[in-house]
Amino acid sequence: MALPFISLAQDWHVGAFVGITNYSGDLVKQKVDLKYTRPALGLLVRRDINRYLSIRGAFTWGIVTGADSTSSDKALLARNLSFKSNVFEGSLIAELNFLDIEEKNFTPYVFLGVGGFGFDPFAKDLSGNKVRLRPLGTEGQGLPEYPGRQPYDLFSFSFPFGAGVKAILNDHWTLGFEIGLRPTLTDYLDDVSTNYVDQNTLLAYRGQKSVDMAYRGDEVSGKLIPGIYPRDGEVRGSAKYKDWYSFSGVTITYRLGGSSGWGRQKAMRCPVFR
Q1: Is the dihedral of CA 15, 18, 23, 29 positive or negative?
Q2: Which fold has domain 12-268?
Q3: Environment class of residue 89 by beta-carbon count within 10 Å: exposed (0-12), middle (13-18) or buried (19+)?
């Protein structure tokens, strides 16, 4: 009986990701608005469990953004909200290859995993100053009049899934392309989720800046009927669906230790039973 080739079947790769980020939430009308495509970069480590299954750990940065001002919906134009945020994601993902990549030199694949990410939405005021939105409590978070609304966490979880294709360039390098979606557990990636709160209450507790950033319809009076701050309880966003983001792009990985473990294994394999 031959010894198992466990070490040979578990190859390691290190590499990078270069691509784009997109966002889906309360500040875009459609699921993905390509006007708000922004860059993404990442580093990754992949371990081949066998020729069909790999486990990947990655750290990825991207930018998510959206604005009512580019919408064709008059209600969103009148609301006039906007946001931008960096997203820093750490993830652990399983890749399932459809083909034996060592024999075909390429394979389509699907992937599924879990990630944790940090974010911090901000917008620019009329003077062009960057304003962090979470401390303003624009939907009454943390106010005694709204006990059910607590400040949202700036860390949440996502569940990456998607598909791609990768090809072996030589004994060391593998090139891939993938599209990956990230449903999340937060509805505040864009600082918008539920209803407006009373303007005077918000002013008393959080100040004029909070009022100014909670509703910005009065800034578009040259285009529409001058906006009036909505009444307490009027719809600001929708809590029915959580926010999503996506990372799509190219991966390039370098295999450590020379030729693949599966390639070596096939060359060295001997039968277990005669």
Answers
A1: negative
A2: Porin (2.40.160)
A3: buried
